[in-house]
């Protein structure tokens, strides 16, 4: 069975001892009942994995000995999914979890013409990314950006390959037919799709229109389908 | 805006009048407040779409006039996802919804070595497929089979292309590299993966081992990723 695995963004091998956060200390000692000598794994979310063992149990300040460090290279494929905030938070959170499992490297929430203004709780959303990263045994945490307006995203987009998925009845490409790229951004619209003006703006800025299949997908499904097709090319 | 769209599995154009089910009658009259003359669309889940209008409102027995029928051909691609029942019902239900949106045509719940026996509520699960079909504006309802044991599924599998996704460290193929097929079944294991014996049984029966990417996916994510990669080939 895999070692208990936790995220601690300040852990490093610069020091041999590390004090776990209160949350991790509590989980180790109260929930998992780990005692002195028990082994665990830590990641800083930047590719570094640390094997460690408990030298001093404390429900708020457990201290571990860092025994080994492995550094995993950053994913070769940079996949940025820029997706409109959704009315339904739990659907957006499902997307965050699935996108992380699949290997998306950046998530850019968007405010679009058809988005109802939604409060964005960065810490909560980031917590979902962390949990999904740990669950899928990865060591690179996707970057979760603050929400920005669609036109700002489009204007500042510097990705090598820029794609927009929309529902209007227009000529679109299949992702599988496009040349593979290691630096991709895909724009995913809200429940009501992008507005006509938004689509035009993106196409004028060099975004390639793509089809995600023959069926009408919910926004969070579109995000997961796009992530799969791009990461798996 | 699209017409209100409902599922009625007994509707046909054989008769010009049709009495809506109690559930649909209630939804039309009480929730949507539709009155005599209001237009709606119905599907029987077997590719038939009917345009209709209300001729007699009743919260339990609304009668509609069938005005038009369109028949959509069955999807050319038959995609059967055989997926282990999961401990967490809501994750399994999420998979059902997404699989339907993506265009999966059959879902075969499996009982596997690592599956905890889970009660399977066919009506409830079918209701999720129906809602997802309507939401994604489709007219073909995926077939939801009763759960069967893994070895029975493998023994009786007659699909042209048979795939198994597993997590063991072995030679696997990428779905994109396999020849396209219009008759595919993919086996997806439970949270603890298929057992070694199950994998061997499937390989001996001609199932091709496939990789769903470089990361460790939750079972329901694996189902959605496999569905995407197969339907979108």
TrEMBL record, chains A, B:
<dbReference type="InterPro" id="IPR006700">
    <property type="entry name" value="RsmE"/>
</dbReference>
<keyword id="KW-0963">Cytoplasm</keyword>
<dbReference type="InterPro" id="IPR015947">
    <property type="entry name" value="PUA-like_sf"/>
</dbReference>
<dbReference type="InterPro" id="IPR029028">
    <property type="entry name" value="Alpha/beta_knot_MTases"/>
</dbReference>
<dbReference type="Pfam" id="PF20260">
    <property type="entry name" value="PUA_4"/>
</dbReference>
<keyword id="KW-0808">Transferase</keyword>
<feature type="domain" description="Ribosomal RNA small subunit methyltransferase E methyltransferase">
    <location>
        <begin position="78"/>
        <end position="230"/>
    </location>
</feature>
<comment type="function">
    <text>Specifically methylates the N3 position of the uracil ring of uridine 1498 (m3U1498) in 16S rRNA. Acts on the fully assembled 30S ribosomal subunit.</text>
</comment>
<keyword id="KW-0949">S-adenosyl-L-methionine</keyword>
<keyword id="KW-0489">Methyltransferase</keyword>
<keyword id="KW-0698">rRNA processing</keyword>
<dbReference type="InterPro" id="IPR046887">
    <property type="entry name" value="RsmE_PUA-like"/>
</dbReference>
<protein>
    <recommendedName>
        <fullName>Ribosomal RNA small subunit methyltransferase E</fullName>
        <ecNumber>2.1.1.193</ecNumber>
    </recommendedName>
</protein>
<dbReference type="Pfam" id="PF04452">
    <property type="entry name" value="Methyltrans_RNA"/>
</dbReference>
<comment type="similarity">
    <text>Belongs to the RNA methyltransferase RsmE family.</text>
</comment>
<dbReference type="InterPro" id="IPR029026">
    <property type="entry name" value="tRNA_m1G_MTases_N"/>
</dbReference>
<feature type="domain" description="Ribosomal RNA small subunit methyltransferase E PUA-like">
    <location>
        <begin position="20"/>
        <end position="64"/>
    </location>
</feature>
<dbReference type="InterPro" id="IPR046886">
    <property type="entry name" value="RsmE_MTase_dom"/>
</dbReference>
């Amino acid at each position: 069975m895999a070692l208990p695995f936790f995220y601690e963004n300040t852990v490093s091998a610069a020091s041999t001892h590390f004090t776990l956060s209160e949350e991790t200390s509590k989980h180790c000692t109260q929930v998992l009942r780990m005692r002195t000598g028990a082994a665990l794994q830590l990641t800083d979310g930047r590719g570094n994995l640390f094997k460690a063992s408990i030298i001093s149990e404390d429900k708020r300040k457990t201290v571990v000995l860092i025994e080994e460090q492995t550094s995993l290279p950053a994913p070769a494929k940079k996949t940025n999914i820029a997706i409109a905030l959704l009315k339904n938070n739990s659907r957006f959170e499902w997307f965050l979890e699935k996108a992380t499992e699949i290997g998306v490297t950046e998530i850019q929430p968007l405010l679009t013409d058809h988005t109802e203004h939604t409060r964005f709780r960065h810490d909560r959303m980031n917590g979902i990314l962390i949990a999904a990263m740990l669950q899928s045994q990865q060591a690179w945490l996707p970057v979760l950006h603050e929400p920005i307006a669609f036109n700002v995203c489009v204007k500042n987009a510097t990705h090598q390959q820029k794609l927009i998925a929309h529902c209007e009845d227009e000529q679109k490409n299949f992702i599988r037919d496009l040349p593979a790229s290691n630096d991709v951004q895909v724009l995913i619209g809200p429940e009501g799709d992008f507005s006509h003006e938004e689509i035009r703006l993106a196409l004028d800025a060099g975004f390639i229109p793509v089809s995600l299949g023959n069926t009408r997908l919910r926004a969070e499904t579109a995000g997961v389908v796009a992530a799969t097709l791009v990461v798996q090319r």
